[in-house]
Amino acid sequence: MSSNAYPYDQSLPAQFLGIKLRLEALLSDVAYKSIEQIRDTSVPGLAAKPIIDVTIVVAPENVRHAIDALVSKGNFVNMGELGARGRWYLKDPELQPEKNVYVCVDGSLPTRYQPGSRDTQTQDDALRGGYAAVELELTAKGTNSMGPLEGSRKSERVSAIKTERLLLREFVEADEDPFFELESQEGVVRYQMWPPRTRAQAHDEVTKTVRNSWAVPRTHVELAVEHEGKFIGRVGANVRREGVAHVDLWFSFLPAYQGKGLAAEAMSAFIPLLGSALELEIECDPRNTGSWKLAERLGFEKFELTAKAFECKGEWVDSLVYRKRI
C-alpha cells in the first residue's frame, strides 16, 4: 500500500471552483450532466494528496463533443482511456493547481464508485478519521508513491518551433484528419512498411503519438509540420540510449509540398532537439531518391547498402543507410 497524503488544505474548495468555472466555459456548447470533484481531495477534512481530481460526466453520445471542446478551446491533450473503460484522461496545459481531469460516460464504473466513496467518507467521521490516520502514517514512513497520472513528472514535450516557413509542434487529437489525408495516399506510403492507412488506423496512430509525447524518458519523438497554418507532414525519431546513443529518423510530407526544401528545413530544426553525442540514421529504399538526397543535403554519409534486405508488400527490397554523428 502506498500514499502521498498531507493534512487537509482549506483552499481546496476554492481551487476546485476555479477549475469548474473554467471547464464550464470550455464546455459551453456541450451537453454534460455534471462536473464533480472526486477522490480524496473532495472530502472535507480528509488528509489527501495535493492533487484535485475532476470528472466531467456526459452521455455516451457526447463524449467526443466534450473531448473535442477541451482539446480545441483549452489545448488539453487527450491521453485516451488508459485501460479504464468509459473514462478518458485529459492532460491540462495549465499545471497549477495540480489536477487530473477526466471525461466519463454516465453510468460507467468510475461515475458509480468514486462519488459513492466520496459521499460515504464525508458522512462517516470515524471512517474518514481512520483513513486519514493511515494515509499520514504511510507518508511519514516514506512509503508514499504516486501513480502515473498523479503529480507532475518533468515533461519532455517540446515547445513549438518556428522556422522561416514552417511551424513544428507536438501532435494533438485534432490532427487525425490531416494525418489521414497524408498517410492514406499510396504515393506517400509507397516505400513504407505499411499500406495506406485507414481512418481507424489514423485515429489510433495519432492517439498513440499524443500519448507517447508525455512519456518520461521519451524514446519516440514525433512532431507535426505546418506551412501557412496547414498540416503538411511529420518528422520523427526513435531514440535508443543504451550503449552508443542511436537515433532513427523519418519524415513524411504531402506530395504538393515535396521538392520545395520544406523537408530539409523541418529536419534541420528538428534534429537539434534530440540532443548531442548521438549517432543519427536515415534508412530508406534506394528507389526513394527524395529520401537519400535529403539525407545527403543534411550532411549524412552513405553507410551501408544491403541488397534484398527485407520483404515489404510482397517484394524483397534493398536497404540504403545514411549516418551522421552529432
TrEMBL record:
Pfam families: Acetyltransf_3, GrpB
Domain N-acetyltransferase stretches: 166-326
Family statement drawn from the similarity comment of this UniProt entry: Belongs to the acetyltransferase family. RimJ subfamily.
Record's keyword terms, sorted: Acyltransferase, Transferase
MF GO annotations: acyltransferase activity, transferring groups other than amino-acyl groups
UniProt keyword Acyltransferase, yes or no: yes
Keyword Acyltransferase: yes
Organism whose genome encodes this protein: Bimuria novae-zelandiae CBS 107.79
InterPro entries noted in UniProt: Acyl_CoA_acyltransferase (IPR016181), GNAT_dom (IPR000182), GrpB/CoaE (IPR007344), N-acetyltransferase (IPR051531), NT_sf (IPR043519)
Name by which UniProt lists this protein: Acyl-CoA N-acyltransferase
